[in-house]
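Open question from group meeting: does this chain pack into something compact, or does most of it stay loose? Before anyone orders reagents, we agreed to write out a predicted structure and look at it together. Recording both the input and the output here so the notebook holds the full record.
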Amino acid sequence: MPITADQVKQLREITGAGMMECKKALADTGGDLEKALDALRKSGAAKAEKRSGRAAKEGRVEAYIHPGSRVGVLIEVNCETDFVARTDEFQQLVRDIAMQVAAASPRWVRREDVPEIELESERAIYRVQAEQSGKPAQVIERIVAGQVERYLKDVCLLEQAFIKQSDRTVKDLLQEAIARLGENITVRRFARFQLGELADRQAEEHEARKETPAGGAPGA
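Structure tokens returned:
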């Protein structure tokens, strides 16, 4: 079937890919927008994989303050050259990821960053919950694995659904940018600050210490 200019325009607006790349993806998938979108994302992932080993030492540190000044974010996103770091597209990418951190409160950049002790603690909680339901052992392990997977998608920045387009993850966003800009791009680190957050945590810890007898657990 013939590919229309409106179809190409729509796919470009979603992905930011070039006109010829969008036209080819639509032609290869018979004009099916969803399949063309999937094909472009896979292509972006393949290109990103090829570039993933290249050093990314340039980039940008972005400061983002959410309206109302109650949440702030500092984030470092790296690319390979200062030329790309100064482009409007790269700077918008960094701002979008900073906004993601402010809105979605991730704790780590990627799942490999999550400490094993944290994962073991989560598994223990999910296992107890599953055991209380009376499920067989093999079913319990599948339930625990699924719960841990959902947990990682919640707390790891790259695994989260992108706040501006929930059918894409932040990792998809990065891979598409890598494909368009032709450089490896990585999120190195971030810090999120919320007004009163530390004070609230210190107050909770103080109350917990008051309730804990010397040498015992709370309520012992």
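Observations to bring back to the group:
The first strand starts at residue 58 and ends at 65.
The CA atoms of residues 212 and 219 lie 7 Å apart.
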